[in-house]
Amino acid sequence: MASKGYSSPQRQGRGTQRDNKDKKPRLTHFLCLPLINQTSIPQLVSSLAGFKASMPLIPPNVPAHVAAAAQLPDVPLVPDGAFRPLGTLHLTLGVMRLPTRERLDEALNFLQSLDLESMLREVEAEAGLILSNTERTTSTTTETTTRLPPASAGPLQPLSISLTSLSAIPSARAATVLHAEPVDPTSRLYPFSVKLREKFIEAGFMECEMIKDPKWRKGKAGAALDAEGDGYDNPTPTRQAADISVNVEQGEISDAETSKSSNISQPMIPRPLLLHATVVNTIYLGKRRQRGGKDKGKKETYKFDARQLLGRYKNYSASGGGGDGNEGPGNLEAHEGLLHTQEREKFPFIWARDIPLDRLCICEMGAKPVPYDETKGGPVLGEKYAAVGERILDFASGGREIDDEEEGGVKIT
């Protein structure tokens, strides 16, 4: 008679086969808009260098008496290894599991089949329709209709963004990620990106991540509590959305992280798209013992208090006498010196202006080192993600090849 709790080899085998069958392949690729080109490189080199140089200092993560006895100097709030290399900056549109060459080829063919120009014209037409409806509902005397040019009219304006501000994930008090926000003056980038993501999801190539519906509340008391907060740590739909997406380029996000809590009564919704450029991610530091943690022996992802940084970079102050939000990191100290003597006006910090979005790429997970080629005068990109397929977003000329020289001597794709 089998002893209690005994599991036969046959049963064990069936269970293992079932577990392997239920487990999804790992994430392998992602769809993105790279941010590195001839226009952005010199601006970002300057901004990121100033950002690192202005990092606040904190005591080393050792007992105070040890630091005093050894006369250990203070250390930067964000360790050097958490800063993302220049060549990796991009806007992620979604992640994919393409475990076989056949599956990858299908996704690449799908990318090439998309009529990107028509999609962007649809975005402009829909924006014109929204504007028309808004004007009809707000006008009490006349009915006006303002529409964008029809889809067949003239060349499309290129997509271009400025990279601004600074936000923390999952919270300002215990941040693991800092990211900048793309700002498109034409308001086309976000709806265009959503359309692209929807196309890849509908075709079965892209993951449709689910999160708890942040608008769902159990009664009025919960809704009232949700309206309160300090402006940084009150979770928002986009912050919850980004909690997963910021780390996907490593290809190590587990299925549990994208579907956890799905067995509770709170409804789940598709993750809203959060367009962001990650500048700091402490996951690359590995696990370490946390300062002041309850379990001193436990190692976890490094967290830090980012409130001081957000105060300076999210909406930093410029003097009322002429600040226009154009100042770089090197001028922040001078602005702060006027804090108590002049009336201040807040502006988002600008990392780089007028960055052309000239490519749509499918990239492999995991950034690779980029050698510095001094013979071509190329910048130190550090690392980049390998693009296995791309579309040139040159709507005016219908697409063109980009020379290596245009990227400062290093071909980004």
From TrEMBL:
Domain A-kinase anchor protein 7-like phosphoesterase, residue spans: 28-316
Domain of life where this protein originates: Eukaryota
Listed GO CC annotations: nucleus
Region of interest called Disordered, as start-end residue ranges on this chain: 1-24, 134-154
Record field: compositional bias (Low complexity): 134-147
GO-annotated biological processes: DNA alkylation repair; regulation of DNA-templated transcription
Biased composition (Polar residues): 1-15
UniProt xrefs under InterPro entries: AKAP7-like_phosphoesterase (IPR019510), ASCC1 (IPR009210)
Protein name: A-kinase anchor protein 7-like phosphoesterase domain-containing protein
Naturally occurring in which organism (per UniProt): Polytolypa hystricis (strain UAMH7299)
